[in-house]
Fold this protein.
Amino acid sequence: MSRHCWRRSNREYRVAFDAEFWDERYGAEKLVYGDKPNDFLAEQVGALTNGKCLCLAEGQGRNAIWLARQGFDVTAVDQSSVGMARAAKQAEDEGVSLSVQVANLADYDLGEQRWDAIIAIFAHLPQPLRRHVHEAVVRALKPGGTFLLEAYTPRQLEMGGTGGPPNIELLMSEVDLRDELAGLDIVIGREIDREINESEMHHGMSAVVQILARKPKGE
């Protein structure tokens, strides 16, 4: 399927595709999702393969900057130029090295065997594009490289507005992710309920899926 089949193809997917929406959100003075790393990422950082790390749909850079502080060589990509400018400025102010790229994931080339680790935190995309991106993740990881993801599941719609998109087609299940990430060994694959406190946008008891996967060294 051509990637253009999903680009801006449905107004329901505005939050996933509209850079202007995210530019407006990230233009607020306050950091939208706070300045602390995602809990699952912080818990599992020791399991990640150190080296070149790519953070997908990275917003204002909270996870990327934290990973750079841990010694990773980090590239952050997001379609919001405002968010990426904020991330670059914060990294410069903190004296950490961070590469930022402004791109829609429908167009972004992850490369082949390029990354030691790839991170996707609440990177909610329409299913056809999500599959395309996750298949690209498998190709883009170096042998032995790791992929870490946390996202909301369809049950999040029952949680009373504690975060995430309201469209069920943008939410993820462990079963679907295992299929989309065929070729990786799943180290952690689970759906859980957990308390999230990442500013007002992600706050309260939430239904999430967590994935930690590794590319076999022989591939």
The mean pLDDT is 88. The longest helix spans residues 81-94. The first strand starts at residue 52 and ends at 56.
